[in-house]
TrEMBL record:
Pfam families: Hydrolase_3 (PF08282). PROSITE patterns: COF_2. The lineage of its organism: Bacteria, Bacillati, Bacillota, Culicoidibacteria, Culicoidibacterales. One of its GO terms (cellular component) is cytosol. It comes from the Bacteria. Gene3D superfamilies: 3.30.1240.10, HAD superfamily/HAD-like. This is HAD family phosphatase.
């Protein structure tokens, strides 16, 4: 039997619009794991938040967090890459300049400037809030407070629907910073991650760890920050709710997250 690595984005892919994982999807994952296949969540969420979801799936679930800056199996942590002090400070100053709400994520901390994660809009709250209070939530509107933790940040996300022009200006400026990489998971956000880090490279690393050929990997996603993963995997599957640009680069388009598209595709290949 071929052993497969199946990697899934969380928001808009594994989770439905009601922020839960469908029963059929959970059952399929458990069946795959029982058959000896490897399942991983691959998300922009910080490690603690990614592990929360992984635990809700089951104890055998692997974790790719912080858009690839973090990797863990059930047995051990393999990768933890940080932005670095200089890059973090540059990103902070640009986002402050354009007055955009942002969140910097450390291993067990959320650092925000304007909106507490507890008061954030429901559509984005899961991205920036830890449900079981295992992470510190600290306001860093004061630059000196931000600097106290500048060596700890792994990635960041800026979210704004009220001022999209400012968001785009900040995105353009951040893209000129040579020491960071910029992606997005939704139209209203900017994701700041370490240079040369992405989900795709970490999927390759996880496949090698489990001695699984890259052609035996399957990745599911719906956003821009999933592109590298869809391209790296043996089969890249875009969800039916994905943006057209994501569907265009995918090998296959399945049904939406609300229709449990992960299950529909895996059933179609008899996995």
């Amino acid at each position: 039997m071929k052993k497969y690595l199946i990697c899934s984005d969380i928001d808009g892919t594994l989770m439905q619009s009601n922020h839960t994982i469908g029963e059929a999807t959970l059952a399929k994952i458990h069946q795959l794991q029982a058959d000896g296949h490897i399942f991983a969540v691959a998300t922009g969420r910080m490690p603690v938040a990614a592990h929360e979801v992984a635990q809700s799936v089951g104890p055998l679930t692997n974790v790719i967090g912080s858009n690839g800056a973090y990797l863990a199996t059930p047995e051990e942590e393999i990768i933890e890459v940080r932005l670095g002090r200089e890059a973090a400070v540059i990103a902070y100053d640009i986002l402050k300049k354009y007055d955009i709400p942002f969140f910097f994520f450390a291993r067990k901390g959320i650092y925000y400037n304007q909106l507490s994660p507890k008061r954030f809009e429901p559509a984005d709250r899961d991205r920036v809030y830890i449900k079981d209070d295992t992470a510190e939530i600290i306001c860093v509107e004061d630059r000196d407070v931000f600097l106290q933790h500048a060596d700890e940040y792994m990635n960041a996300v800026a979210i704004s629907e009220d001022n999209l022009p400012a968001l785009e200006q900040a995105r353009a400026e951040l893209k000129q910073v040579a020491s960071i990489h910029i992606e997005s998971s939704r139209f209203n956000n900017i994701e700041v991650i370490p240079l040369h880090v992405n989900k795709g490279e970490t999927v390759k690393r996880l496949a090698a760890y489990h001695n699984i050929p890259i052609e035996n990997t399957i990745a599911f996603g719906d956003g821009e920050n999933d592109i590298s993963m869809l391209q790296a995997a043996g089969i890249g599957v875009a969800m039916g709710n994905a943006e057209d640009a994501i569907k265009a680069i995918a090998d296959v388009v399945t049904a939406s997250n609300d229709e449990e598209g992960i299950v529909q595709f895996l059933d179609s290949i008899n996995l």
